[in-house]
């Protein structure tokens, strides 16, 4: 697969400065140049947000600056959304949420978009979803899959508690997990759960969904 390169430096700098107009223009230009949405998400947005997350974790930027950059990214995702939506919907649904107490939702929003690109019906519950509410909602919807995001490493114990409850209440449901937290390890947390699948990036998720029947 060809490696796509972007000028992440300027994009990241503009995010930190709060220059929404430049960031939006850059992404629009990339789309006009027929850049893949997956490349834009993975190589530009995801990499930049991971860098911002690390800057925040090491107190090199303020919480306000991190929130500003996140708000710009979310506005860009909303701009891109109409380009992604397909009117052809498959008879499959997924419930998506962040782990309890997790407020970083950009990753799971991009995951939601990948499902939408593949024609899935999505139920996006957003950040800080209480586990009992998530489970009750999911039982009502009865989706084919669930997707959970965790960005902060110290939230992995909360993810494990959530997975235990999901397994007890809905033992046959397949659950995708991912997020920046797994850059520091943590795969051992999910290895004990047969129906939990860790996918490291959006391309692997897209591949899985395109081969969903074969994967079972």
What secondary-structure arrangement, pairings included, does this model have?
Layout: H1 8-17, H2 20-32, H3 37-57, H4 63-84, E1 93-98, H5 106-117, E2 121-124, H6 131-141, E3 145-149, H7 156-169, E4 174-178, H8 187-191, E5 196-198, H9 202-210, H10 212-215
Parallel strand pairs: 1-2, 1-3, 3-4, 4-5
Describe this structure as you would to a colleague:
The protein has 216 residues and is of the alpha/beta class. Helices cover 56% and strands 11% of the residues. The chain contains ten helices and five strands, in the order H-H-H-H-E-H-E-H-E-H-E-H-E-H-H. The protein has helices spanning 8-17, 20-32, 37-57, 63-84, 106-117, 131-141, 156-169, 187-191, 202-210, 212-215, and strands spanning 93-98, 121-124, 145-149, 174-178, 196-198. The longest helix is centred in the middle third of the chain and has 22 residues, at 63-84. The relative contact order is 0.12.
**CA gyration radius, whole angstroms:** 17 Å
> How many strand elements?
5
Helix-and-strand structural type: alpha/beta
- Provide the residue-averaged pLDDT: 88
Distance between the termini: 26 Å
List the uncertain runs. Answer: none
State the helix count.
10
> Element order, helices and strands?
HHHHEHEHEHEHEHH
Global geometry: globular
Report the portion of residues in β strands: 5-15%
The major sheet is characterized as: 5 strands, parallel
Helix coverage percent? 55-70%
